[in-house]
UniProtKB/TrEMBL annotation:
Any single Gene Ontology cellular-component annotation: cytoplasm
InterPro entries, A to Z: 4Fe4S_Fe-S-bd, 4Fe4S_Fe_S_CS, PSI_iron-sulfur_center, YfhL-like
Gene3D superfamilies registered for this protein in UniProt: 3.30.70.20
Domain of life, source organism: Bacteria
NCBIfam families documented for this protein: di_4Fe-4S_YfhL (NF033683)
UniProt KW keywords: 4Fe-4S, Electron transport, Iron, Iron-sulfur, Metal-binding, Repeat, Transport
Segments forming domain 4Fe-4S ferredoxin-type: 1-29, 31-64
Molecular function, one GO term: 4 iron, 4 sulfur cluster binding
Protein name: Putative 4Fe-4S ferredoxin
Length: 82
């Protein structure tokens, strides 16, 4: 599944540069994750880097974008051209 950033986000700006797919950007009030670009770091790392680095634990799975590991790997390959 893709991830999402909740309204508990404190806009600390550590997640955006940590995302290898550039799926995180500034939203109107908090950072947002583009589900079309989020692979939960599959293909890049063993765990989502935004989740690892977030100081307030505000990045859960997005229940509206359920994906399997295989789906995430396919998305990674599409995004990176690998």
């Amino acid at each position: 599944m893709a991830l999402l950033i909740t309204d508990e986000c404190i806009n600390c700006d550590v997640c955006e540069p940590a995302c290898p797919n550039e799926a995180i950007s500034e939203g109107d009030d908090i950072y947002v994750i583009d589900p079309d670009l989020c692979t939960e770091c599959v293909g890049h790392f063993d765990e989502p880097q935004c989740v690892v680095i977030c100081p307030v634990d505000c990045i859960p799975h997005d229940p509206n974008h359920v994906e399997t590991e295989s789906d995430l790997m396919s998305k990674y390959k599409r995004i990176t051209g690998k």
